[in-house]
Specification:
homodimer, about 325 residues, alpha+beta, Aminopeptidase, seven-stranded mixed β-sheet, two-stranded antiparallel ribbon, DNA-binding
DNA sequence: ACTAATTATGTAACTGATTACACAAATGTA
DNA sequence: TACATTTGTGTAATCAGTTACATAATTAGT
C-alpha cells in the first residue's frame, strides 16, 4: 500500500478498512475449505449461542457489540438454514429466545478444527510481525473510548487556532470594536445599562485612570477584548471587566488567552487581588473564570443590575 | 471489547471492522468541524487530484487501491458538488479526464489545516500506545500479500490432518485396499497392464522377496499405499512402486508421509539407491518425488508401457 | 485490413454493517 | 389504576464499498 505512506496518517481509517476487507474476503473461502455451509458474519452470534443457553436478540447484540437489527437479521438467516431455533418467552411476550438447533450443535463440532487452524494461522502471523496488531487494536479501542478521535482533533485545532491569535494593548482604533463586542453579548442576554454606555463610550478613560485594555486579534481583526479597572477599595486593587469574545471566533481559546494576558498585566501593575462580577446565566464565562483561578466570594454592591455573582483571584 | 478477548484471534476480522467503524464515524463530524462540505470517502481521490494534473478514473483507482466503479461514483458526486471537472480525452475517446475545479482547489487550501490537525491527533494516539498500529497494519499488509490468510490456514489444516495419519506395515487384511487404490489411478489415466494384475493380486510375494509395503491409515481406514521392490540390478537395490493415495484423502500430506516412511524403511533394509518409474502426465506425483529428493535419470527398459520417466534417490 | 483481445468506463445488484422508525409488551409512577 | 417510560424486536432506508455485466474505443495479431 504505497499510497498510504504518501498520504499519511489521515487515511488510517481507509487503510484499516482495506486490511479488514482482504481478511474478510478470505474468510468465506476458509469456511469452504472445511465444507461448512456457514457465513463468517454468523460467527460471533454462533459463538455466544455455543454456550448452550437461550438468549434474547438484544443480549446477544450487547455481548458481541453489534446493533440489535444486525443480530436480528443474522438470526433470521441462521433460522432459515436450520442452525438455530426461536421460541417466544412465555413470561415476557417481547422476548424472542434463540438457541442452537441439533444441526447447529453438529456444525459447532465441525467448526472446532477450523477454529484451531485459523487461530494458529493468526498467531503465526502475529509472531512473524514486529508490531503486535492484536494488542495495538486493543489499545486503540481503549484510547478512543477515553477520548474520541473527534475530540482529539478538536484539541489540536484549538491549539493551532490559538497560535493565530495575538493579544495586543488597546489603541484608539479599537474603540469601535471594544464597544461593539461588548454590546453584542450584553444586549443578547440582558439590556444595556447606563453604566455600560458610560464605560464603553469612554475606553480612553480606563487607561487614564491607571487601568488597561487588551485586544485579541485574529487575522488582524479584533475579535475579543478585556479591561482592567483600577478600584478604590480596601480589599481589591483591580477589577477584571468588559470581557467579550465574538461568537464568530469561538473555539480558539481566545477567552483564556485574554484572561491570562490580563492577569499578567495586573501583576505587572502590582496588583495583589483581582475582582470581577458576572451572571450565572453566562455558563461558559463562569467556567472560564474558574479555569483562570477565580473563586466565588460573598456579594458586594454593584453598579450593574445583572451582576449576581462575584469572584476574586489572589495573585502571587 | 471484552468479547474479543474471549473469542480469540479468529474474530480479528470483526474486531478490525469495528475499530474502523468507530474511526470513520468520527470522520464525518471532523469535516463539519472545519466547515467544509466534504465527504471523508472523497479524500483519497481528492488527494491524488491535488497533484494538479488530469487523471483517468482507472489510474486513480489503481493509485488508491479501490475498484474503478467506486472511483467512478465518487467522481460523479464530486462533479455534482463542483469540486472536479470531467473532460473527454481527444486522443482516446474512452478516457474521462478528471481534474480539480477552481472550487476544488479552494477547498484544498482549507483542508490543509484539517489535515495537519488530524495527522497530529493520530500521531498523538500512536505515541500514547505501546504497540504501533500504523506499522502493524503495514506489516500485515505485507505478510498477507506474501501468503494469504487462506493459504496460511490451509497449511495449518494440512499439518493437523497429517497428524491423524498413521503409516503402518502391510498386513493381509489390506490386500483389497492395496489393489483398489492402485487400480483407481491406473485405470483413470492409463489401462491396467498384465504386470499390474500380477503385482496387485500377489502383494504377499513382495514381502517374501525381501520387499516391503506400507499402508497409510486415516481414521483407521487405509487411504494410501506404497511398495518397495527388491531389484536385481547392478545400479539399484530397491524400487519404489505402487504408490497410491485415495483422491478422497487429498491435502493431508499422505503421499509425502508415505514416501518418507518408505525411504526410512529402505535405509533400514540397507539400500543405497532407490529407483522409480512414472509418467510425466502425473504432475502431482512427479513433484512429490522431487520433494522427496528423487532426480531424473536416463531411460532404462521397463515392463510398463506407461513409464516415460525414471528417477533415482541416493541414500546416505 | 479485419477480427480478436484489451482497456476505460458506467450501471446494477449485492454485502454487511449502520441509523431511524414503528409497535407491542412490560415496568414505573402519580 | 391509568398513563408515561422503558425495553425488545422487526422493517426500511442508507452507506461505502464490492463484483458482475454491458458497451464503446483502442490496440494487437494475422
Amino acid at each position: 500500500m504505497e499510497f498510504f505512506n504518501k498520504v499519511g496518517k489521515m487515511a488510517i481509517g481507509s487503510r484499516l478498512r482495506m486490511l479488514t476487507e482482504t481478511m474478510v474476503e478470505d474468510a468465506v473461502r476458509i469456511y469452504k475449505l472445511y465444507d461448512i455451509d456457514f457465513q463468517p458474519k454468523w460467527f460471533p452470534v454462533f459463538y455466544v449461542l455455543q454456550d448452550g443457553g437461550e438468549f434474547t436478540i438484544t443480549s446477544i447484540a450487547r455481548e458481541i457489540g453489534h446493533s440489535h437489527p444486525s443480530v436480528s437479521k443474522i438470526i433470521a438467516e441462521m433460522v432459515k438454514n436450520g442452525f438455530v431455533i426461536e421460541k417466544k418467552d412465555k413470561a415476557d411476550g417481547r422476548r424472542n429466545m434463540v438457541s442452537l438447533s441439533a444441526k447447529g450443535i453438529e456444525v459447532g463440532k465441525k467448526i472446532q478444527d477450523q477454529y484451531a487452524d485459523v487461530t494458529n494461522a493468526v498467531e503465526e502471523l502475529l509472531a512473524q510481525a514486529n508490531h503486535d496488531l492484536w494488542k495495538a487494536i486493543e489499545e486503540w479501542e481503549y484510547l478512543l473510548e477515553q477520548k474520541s478521535l473527534l475530540r482529539r482533533v478538536q484539541a489540536h485545532q484549538k491549539i493551532r487556532e490559538s497560535n493565530k491569535v495575538h493579544i495586543v494593548p488597546y489603541e484608539p482604533k479599537y474603540a469601535r470594536a471594544f464597544k461593539a463586542l461588548n454590546e453584542e453579548w450584553i444586549s443578547k442576554y440582558f439590556v444595556m445599562e447606563d453604566a455600560d454606555y458610560k464605560a464603553l463610550d469612554n475606553a480612553d478613560s480606563y487607561i487614564i485612570n491607571n487601568g488597561h485594555i487588551l485586544v485579541a486579534l485574529y487575522n488582524n481583526e479584533p475579535v475579543g477584548v478585556c479591561a482592567l479597572l483600577k478600584m478604590d477599595d480596601p480589599d481589591y486593587d483591580y477589577e477584571l471587566a468588559k470581557m467579550a469574545v465574538s461568537p464568530k471566533a469561538q473555539g480558539k481559546n481566545i477567552g483564556f488567552l485574554l484572561g491570562q494576558a490580563i492577569i499578567e498585566k495586573a501583576k505587572a501593575l502590582g496588583s495583589h487581588k483581582l475582582y470581577l462580577e458576572s451572571n450565572t446565566i453566562l455558563k461558559p464565562a463562569i467556567s472560564l473564570y474558574h479555569k483562570l483561578g477565580f473563586v466565588k466570594v460573598a456579594g458586594r454592591p454593584s453598579p450593574y443590575e445583572r451582576a449576581n455573582i462575584q469572584m476574586e483571584l489572589e495573585l502571587k
